[in-house]
What we know:
Blueprint: H1 3-32, H2 35-38, H3 43-68, H4 73-95, H5 100-122
Helix pairs in contact: 1-3, 1-5, 3-4, 4-5
Amino acid sequence: MSPLANIIRLFLKVWVITVALETLTLFAVAFLWLREERRRWSVGLLLFCGIACSSATLPYLNLVLPLYIRSSYALFHIVGETLVILAETVFYRFVLQLNWPRALALSAVCNAVSATVGLLFFG
């Protein structure tokens, strides 16, 4: 298999895992912590948010950012996750109509789960 095919295969694997983890976390947070807001959201909207957020940010995190930050894996993770959390916060703020602190908390929790699992399984 070519190197490009391996990269694409690995990216798709990471994408599926990330979408699944962040979407499940989004549903859990919506049902456990954001009960008042949850009444305004459909299952379809939550599915859309889980898939769209990961799909929009993961390519930049895994394919673009490494071109600019090569010096330190820790720096890469700190910068990358911070940018992803901020981008997804804006998305949640406007699509789910959450206030800024709740949107930030939701984004941080979803990304903490996927980043932790990613570090445990992919190193």
